[in-house]
UniProtKB/TrEMBL annotation:
Principal location class: other
Compartments, record wording: Cell septum
Keyword Phosphoprotein in record: yes
Cellular component terms (Gene Ontology): cell septum
PROSITE patterns: RESPONSE_REGULATORY
Keywords linked to the UniProt accession: Heterocyst, Phosphoprotein, Two-component regulatory system
Organism of this sequence: Microseira wollei NIES-4236
SUPFAM superfamilies the UniProt entry points to: CheY-like (SSF52172)
Functional summary from the UniProt entry: Controls heterocyst pattern formation.
Protein's UniProt name: Protein PatA
Residues with 4-aspartylphosphate modification: 349
Domain of life, per lineage: Bacteria
Amino acid sequence: MTNDLAKDKLSDLLETLSQRQFTGKLEVQALPVTWNLYFCLGRLVWIGGGAHGIRRWYRLLSQYCPQIPPKSIRPRLVDDSHSWKYQALTILVKQQKIQHEQAVGVIKSTIAEVLFDILQQEEKAPLTFICNFSDEQTVLDTSLIPIHPIQALSEAQQAWKTWRNAGLASVSPNMGAVIKQPEQLQQLASPQVYQTLVKLIDGKRSLRDVAVKVKQDELVLVRSLIPYIRKKVIVLTNIPDFRPPTTNATTSPKANHSTPEVYASNLEEHQAVAAEAFSSPVAACHSQLPITKPKIVRPLVAHVEDSLQERQLMQEILTGASYGFASIEDSMQALPLLLEHKPDLIFLDLVMPVANGYEICAQIRRISIFKDTPVIILTGNDGIVDRVRAKMVGATDFLAKPISEQKVLAALQKHLNLESLPPDAALANLSFQTST
């Protein structure tokens, strides 16, 4: 039984399906792309399809389950074309080939990526929804982790909002990148960064693929490439999905139902073979992590503020948008710490003990490396006299308190010119793995 819901929005529809404890498959269409959302009693079990269904599967399986060569997993004759990956995870857990937490990591990341893609597409054009109520083919085993669809959508909406606020609404993380002007790139980048980019930016990996390869957030990665993209040294392009694996036809359909080993029938012979496109183990698969020195994330934003509550709020806003954050409480230590971290933008509270914002701003402008760094004064008294005085000491702008996510991100977009950052500085915090 099907039901065409062409005029609904995704958020409204997921709320309805959750409340009605829907069991079955929801098809989301933005032709020629279709996504398939699988539900059981109103909970989201799995999402398949999309432009990069196989590429996503290989990447996330390699990321969360590095002991499993992705190409060793093949669908059975009886499997649904989009849900066989979930069924494979279920069987691999039962066979103790992977841990339950590893399967959960694949599922959560799959759902997060696909919902993000759907939200990005929904902003471009209306979507068509078709509900297929439960039948033998669409009901999945829910033993791994049934997820509340509204919670998953809320997290995806926040990720999409952050991406869009960064000015990347037209950029899909499924796009690939190609170096168009290698000579100019060699002039702009250090030899190490140039070699890294040449190995990674080959037009064969999506931005998501590269982000996993360098163990970095997708937004931070794309921001680091923006200076090169704006100079047309690197261009973004659409890339195809991988070819789907062939069906494992070594057993009959009846045997497939009772023989879970069919999923891993080639596993032992492939154990020593690394995945071709992705070979990055993920920390989430390990209970103990090595302690490493935190890396400075660029663009780095400093916040000089004596109020703990204000600093915490600013940190939440900035880190949530994938900006680096340097918090400075003591106004007397502001200059030494600013010199140490060399932020790309500075938020400066006006009223502080010992030294106020005007005095610190004037001192900042006397330092040559900060002569072009945006300095934004934060104040609860946004009057004309204060604005004039701020300009006299070299402040770039004023921001009225109380601060909010909308105000802060708008100020960053206005004043933080990513193209002006040193190219290597934007890439310095990435942990590249250039082995193939």
